[in-house]
């Protein structure tokens, strides 16, 4: 699994959540009536320090991460978070990843 956050998306998080350099954003699966990769779940966010991060990326001074126990949600996918100027909101873009042998999961 890989994770990318655009500079504009990171700036949106800083503005909307009043974050400062060094703050952290946890990404995690949560029960939801909406949809994401799995029916009944979507990607939630929280502002808390990592405990057992499995993946983390720093952008615009903010650390974005997922804990080990939450990686099941992204299995076989990469995540890119971008900013939509038209919506003044962020978008989660999921990309299926190939495994050795050319099979896509």
From TrEMBL:
Q: Which InterPro entries match?
A: HesB-like_dom_sf (IPR035903)
Write the protein's name: FeS cluster biogenesis domain-containing protein
Q: What is the lineage of its organism?
A: Bacteria, Bacillati, Bacillota, Bacilli, Bacillales
């Amino acid at each position: 699994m890989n994770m990318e956050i655009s500079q504009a998306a990171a700036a949106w998080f800083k503005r909307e959540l009043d974050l400062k350099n060094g703050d952290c954003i946890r990404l995690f699966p949560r029960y939801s009536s909406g949809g994401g990769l799995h029916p009944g779940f979507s990607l939630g966010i929280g502002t808390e320090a990592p405990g057992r991060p499995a993946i983390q990326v720093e952008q615009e001074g903010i650390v974005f991460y997922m804990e080990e126990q939450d990686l099941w949600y992204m299995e076989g996918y990469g995540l890119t978070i971008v900013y939509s100027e038209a919506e003044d909101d962020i978008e989660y873009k999921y990309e299926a990843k190939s495994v050795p042998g050319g099979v896509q999961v």
